[in-house]
Fold this protein.
Amino acid sequence: MPDKTGEEFIKHEFDEAIAVQQSIVDAETALAGSHPVSSAKTAIKSALRRDKSYLRELQTLGAKHGASGEVEDVAGGLKELMEQTLETAQSEGADSDFYEAHAVLLNLKRKQMDSAGAMLKIARDQKDTKLRDAALEFERAQKATSKDLAAELASYAVRIAKA
């Protein structure tokens, strides 16, 4: 990432958050229909409803800073990894492949927790109460769904290990 400061850095943070959130929504959409574990599928569907809403909100808030979801290095790498693991899971259909796709989705969610934390600090520094409230809600929701998805992933690991 070239040296970015001030408003250019804020735009970058929004671009990255939007791009990662789009990858999350795309992955959840795919896994909500194809994940072999029904409880994981339910958790993913639940997260998807909220994540679509957060994507729209990020797009709206980001637009004020000129951000549209431009895919840069980190978001691009995560997006590519998510697409590859999903493609393998859906074409091969093996539990271990779906496990990997689920794990990458969880990493995307955790990346968003970091982004939300940064946005929250920026919002507080700039005394932007609308962004502060949105970032706080976003951070809490990502943490909660990450916890649910991590529990499902751990259970899935046990299921695979017992097979």
